[in-house]
Amino acid sequence: MAACCLPQLANAETPNGYYATARIIDADHRANNMDASARPGIGRFVAGDEHQRFVTGAIGFGHAHGNGWRTEGEYTLRRNDTYTSGSSLFATSFNNHEVSSQRLMLNAYRDFAINDAWSVYGSAGAGLAQLKSGGWQGNTSRRYDTTTRTGLAWSVGTGVSVAASDRMTVDLGYRYVDMGTTESGWNTFGNARGLQDEKMRLDLTSSEFHLGARLAF
């Protein structure tokens, strides 16, 4: 009897059909490997502000397949961040790397029912991250060229879900997102060697706690 009940609980938790979702996200963006930037070769690399924490949101549309699996398309809102770094010989002339990011992902979820209301899930996603990079050094008149890159992003996560009604499910979860590498264009200003040989580079990741709701229709 228990064996025949388990599939019924799983089906009740993830019925077959489409749904829309919205999420509030507490995100911590991290700029990694900034020391790989093309630098003027004078002094040693000095790290500055390498992370930004903020609240953002995401919206999505998905399909529950009725067997514990869900697939979903998700758009995460555009975010503008600034990360800083410098050289030990130019203490007051930090690079300010301005990065605009947004992403469009295809996510897969596997739900594991605990009872007829609660379940836990694991998730994985792959998609595209658009990263726009530019910025300045020392003061805003000393600009770097701006570049835009669209590349692969991926994520892994876990969480818990509860059925709030026949049509609405509330999720609380965590995920790690890798949005790839971005770099600015070359310096447009004259540097200490009179060369156009500097650009800013970083690898962007995000650690995210999210609270969301799914509405079936």
TrEMBL record:
Organism: Stenotrophomonas maltophilia
Keywords: Signal
Every Outer membrane protein beta-barrel domain range: 2-191
InterPro entries: Beta-barrel_OMP (IPR027385), OMP/PagP_B-barrel (IPR011250)
Full protein name: Porin family protein
